[in-house]
Amino acid sequence: MIALLIRDLRLAIRTGGGFGLGLAFFLIIAVLVPFGVGPDSAVLGRIAPGILWVGALLSCLLSLDRIFALDFEDGSLDLLATAPIPLEGLVGVKAFSHWLTTGLPLTLAAPVLGLLLSLPEPAYLWLILSLLIGTPALSFIGAFGASLTVGLKRGGLLLSLLVLPLYVPTLIFGAETIRRGAEGLGTATPLTMLGAITLGTLAVLPFASAAAIRINLR
Amino acid sequence: MSFWEYANPKRFMALSSAALPWFTALTALVLSVGLIWGFFFTPDDFRQGSTVKIIYIHVPSAFIAINAWLMMLVTSLVWLVRRHHVSALAARAAAPIGLAMTCIGLITGAVWGQPMWGTWWEWDPRLTSFLILGLFYLGYIALWEAIDDADTAADLTSVLCIVGSVFAVLSRYAILFWNQGLHQGASLSLDKEENVHDVFAYPLWTCIIGFVLLFITLVLLRTRTEIRARRVKALIARERMA
Amino acid sequence: MELQVVDLGVARGGLPILQGVSFTLEAGQVLVLRGPNGIGKTTLLRAIAGLQPALSGHVSLDPEAVAYAAHADGLKSTLSVLENLTFWAQVYGTTDVAPALQAFALQNLADRPAQNLSAGQKRRLGLARLLVTGRPLWVLDEPTVSLDASAVTLFADAVRAHCARGGAALIATHIDLGLQSDLLDLTPFKATAMAQGDFDEAFL
Amino acid sequence: MMPDLGKYAVSVLSAYGATLAIVALLIWISLRRGRKVQDELRSLEGRRDDA
Q1: With an 8 Å Cβ cutoff, are A165 and B135 in contact?
Q2: Contacts of B172 in chain A (CB under 8 A)
Q3: Are B139 and A152 inside 8 Å of each other by CB?
Q4: How many domains does chain C have?
Q5: Between B207 and which of B43, B56, B233, C67 could a Cys-Cys bridge form, CB atoms 3.0 to 4.6 Å apart?
Q6: Is residue B93 part of a domain?
Q7: Angle between helix B55-82 and helix B9-40 axes, rounded to 10 deg
Q8: Tally of domains within chain B
Q9: Which CATH number belongs to the domain containing residue C106 in this structure?
Q10: How far is A100 from chain B (nearest CA, A)?
């Protein structure tokens, strides 16, 4: 399974795609919003938590269809399904490597973009923390969506439609954590909920995804 | 005879064909009684004026929108566990009805909210939850349409339905947390104190029963269509092979 | 290691295409599947490899014994030949890829990215993967597509060596590999129409 | 016979109107597709009986 992780990361680095694209998209959103909303830093600071979370979510969405589609097209998925790795483990590794190449860089880039959006100072800790805790859920939910649409020729749009409502709870609790942090309120509740959702998706969704992949392969 | 005998497509076709006219007639009767009663023969509310009449479509459609998803969840589980095709096809047949009911709930809610709250759309927890429910229906229907192989489509949509149900409940709590809202509490409950007045309650119950009957009739009708469509597909495939 | 297929029926796209297929395959044997296009060779092989459920009958086999190779080789174009092969070796928990490279004459290409290989070279790399799996039963679907005559000989040698080591191979192919093999023609096993009155008859 | 809906007449009527329209559309779509599929099936079964 470590071999699989290393291979996926190596592929992500060599083909570029995933990495750069998600980050660039995140940057574009953070840069464009002030042009649309106006330069008033008070307004920007108020909406920054939401913008950053929505931006991270959309950047994540961008590379989801690559999680399984490439392996499906070149036949690797068939071969991996007959290999001694359990399919659930395969899904977990794939989602984890997706997180390493999108969620983690997004989390690291977010504070810089927070500066651009004049995010209030006390919020930075919560920004990093909520993204760090929340983005793995985005990758695992996304992997579930990708496993449902893996057999489809043009599954990209459908994938977004399927995943969108599933992202709502994560988005709400993630952005709420930062907003409360920015106003100096208690962040324990949303952060705990966010962590609970992430742990839940980590524990359960690989099984649902593996079932979906098995159905798609037959 | 076991209950599962009804899952035999042939038996289902025969039974539903006999039952459909009765259900159609009963639906027409109950629904027209309920709606006419509600629209023409109930007094205005002292606070909400005549807008209270919207309750006779708003509450039943919302009720169906939620319970249609529950029914899809049950039939999806039945399909996954017992592999009865009729069950999966019934879930497929119910989804567009659920979507339509969600739309009705949202539209009537907006129309009601406009004079009451002074705004067409409010990010109120219930309205927001319904919007999300609508998205779930859309995704579910789109997945059915996108997959060619019927059994694969049935399996995958069932998995989506189950996972979606969990996330729908999660969303509900997340949204409650996010905004406490100005929507009034449940219109009907067994707790007498909170109930709307009897004058409104009787026609409302009639309308709910009417909507349930409408739902059953449409599900029967649409499931019959889905079974036939499935058979057409099978026959074409068999011809191509022969 | 023994593969036993008893009264197997398989379906494609929800329609039964083969029924009543039975055979056994023991260590050291090669079984070649024949039959016209569309008869269901690929479907049968996928069912034996455990990728799709059988409609009827059963396959008695340790799922940990199968190495499956299909039309697609599952190569990553940005990885080199060596990297591709090493990855599969790690997945299957083996380490030595040198014999596999040698058996398919890939030593000189070891550092070349897979995207710069010709179709035949890619196929050879895909087949070399079988050697690093260390699994006794090879289930191969048209393994000789785009191979030239000398590469086919390499492949036949590899299969022969594999059988000599106590392995076995189930191969769907149309060309004569020059191997000591049994033949199974699938044409007589073509599924007939479903019996009337079946529970789900309306759908099949 | 028409009840006096007061100042909310437009709201109430449009809510009922929209509902009736959506339900009618739903029923129409269901019936139309039902008929189409049934015709298709009849012609297919007929062809099978001839053969």
Answers
A1: yes
A2: none
A3: no
A4: 1
A5: B56
A6: yes
A7: 170
A8: 1
A9: 3.40.50.300
A10: 24
Is B202 domain-assigned?
no
Listing DSSP states for A151-194 in one string gives T-TT-HHHHHHHHHHHHHHHHHHHHHHHHHHHTT---HHHHHHH
pTM: predicted TM-score of the whole model, two decimal places: 0.89
Nearest to B149 among C14, C202, C203 (CB): C14
Per the structure, the complete domain to which residue B219 belongs is given by 58-182+213-241
Supply the pLDDT for residue B66. Answer: 92
CA dist., res. B175 & res. B123, Å (int): 9
Distance CA B212, CA B222 (A): 15
Contact C33, C103 (CB under 8 A): no
Report helix, strand or coil for A26. helix
Structural domain includes residue C74: yes
- Answer whether C16's CB lies under 8 Å from C3's CB: no
Q: Locate the chain A residue with the closest alpha carbon to B135.
A: A165
Chain A residues within 8 Å of chain B (Cβ atoms): 144, 148-149, 151-152, 155, 158, 161-162, 164-166, 168-169, 172-173, 176, 189-190, 193, 197, 205, 208, 211-212, 215-216, 218
Cα B131 to Cα B49: distance, rounded to the nearest angstrom: 27
Contact residues, chain A, for B179 at CB < 8 Å: none
C13, C199, C202: residue with CB nearest B231: C202
Residue of B nearest to D17 (CA): B108
Within-domain flag for C198: no
Q: Give the CA distances from residue B183 to residues B45, B117, B121, B200, C77, in Å, rounded to whole numbers and listed in that order.
A: 17, 9, 12, 19, 57
The residues that bridge with C21 in the sheet, in sequence order, are C8
Question: Cα torsion for A173, A177, A179, A182, to the nearest 10°?
Answer: 180
Q: Minimal Cα distance from A154: which residue of B? A: B146
ipTM of the complex: 0.86
- Testing the interface with A: which of C10, C88, C95, C141 to mutate, by most A Cβ within 10 A? C88
What pLDDT does B1 receive?
44
- Cβ contact A62:A24 at 8 Å: no
* Type and span of the H or E element at A144: helix A123-148
- Hey, are the CB atoms on A14 and C79 less than 8 Å from each other? yes
Count CB-CB contacts under 10 A for residue B118: 8
Strands C182-185 and C30-34: parallel
Supply A88's token pair.
């659930």
- DSSP letters of A98-118? HIIIIIHHHHHHHHHHHHHTT
Domain that holds residue A83: 2-217
Number of domains in chain A: 1
Residues C82-99 as b/e (b if ≥16 CB within 10 A, e otherwise) read: bbbbbbbbbbbebeebee
Residue of B115, B214, B231 lying closest to D41 (CB–CB): B231
> Does residue C192 sit in helix, strand or coil?
coil
Residue B21 domain-assigned? no
Q: Which of B10, B149, B230 is nearest residue C13 as measured by Cβ atoms?
A: B149
Token pair, residue B35, equals: 């709606």
Distance CA B105, CA B63 (A): 9
In this structure, which amino acid lies at residue A74?
D
Write out chain A's pLDDT in tens, 218 residues.
Answer: 788 888 888 887 777 665 678 888 999 998 899 899 888 888 888 888 889 999 999 998 888 888 888 888 888 888 888 888 889 999 999 999 999 988 999 999 999 999 888 888 888 889 999 999 999 999 999 999 999 999 887 778 899 999 999 999 999 999 889 988 888 888 888 899 999 999 999 999 999 999 999 998 88
Q: Under an 8 A CB cutoff, do A152 and B146 touch?
A: yes
Q: Do B9 and C202 touch (CB under 8 A)?
A: yes
* Among A6, A161, A139, residue whose Cα is nearest residue A67: A139
| DSSP-based helix, strand, coil % in chain B, nearest 5 | 85, 0, 15
Token representation of residue A45: 């600071």
Q: Using a CB-CB distance cutoff of 8 angstroms, which residues of chain A are in contact with residue B164?
A: 165-166
Let me know how long chain A is.
218
